[in-house]
Design brief:
single chain, 115 residues, alpha+beta, HIT family, subunit A, five-stranded antiparallel sheet, 5 strands, 26% helix, 22% strand, globular, binds adenosine monophosphate
């Protein structure tokens, strides 16, 4: 989608601090980090959010996106200390960008419940 900021990052039309890329997903640093490590992992294919992945194709997109998040967490040395993966979904979920993304947060102890 030409008006989607994350599609434009995937296409290389908007700069981002990219960390990793596969054929199916891209990982880059969040512009407004909420933790010492705050990475976004987005699928290369445009899907609005988790609610749009309830299909076989969506399952593959979700699986490959989460898989890259797990790989990046390992590469950044978070596997042992732990980390949080978040997918804000829709208005009440706090989603502000309408392209599925996994937040990878780490480097500090997270609190619960979330705000
Ligand atoms: P959410 O509120 O879950 O939709 O998260 C969207 C995230 O995208 C926020 O944490 C923003 O800081 C981040 N963000 C928005 N635009 C960019 C961008 N151009 N590059 C990197 N991160 C971005």
């Amino acid at each position: 989608m030409s008006d989607c900021i994350f599609c434009r990052i995937v296409a290389g039309e908007i700069p981002a601090k990219e960390i990793a890329r596969t054929a199916d997903a891209v990982a880059f640093h969040d512009l407004n980090p909420q933790a010492p490590v705050h990475v976004l992992v987005v699928p290369a294919t445009h899907v609005a959010n988790a609610a749009g992945t309830d299909t076989d194709a969506g399952e593959r997109i979700m699986g490959r996106t989460v898989r890259l998040a797990v790989q990046v967490a390992k590469e950044l040395g978070l596997a042992e200390s732990g980390y949080r993966l978040v997918m804000n979904t829709g208005a009440d979920g706090g989603q502000s960008v309408g392209h599925l993304h996994v937040h990878l947060l780490g480097g500090r102890r997270m609190t619960w419940p979330p705000g």
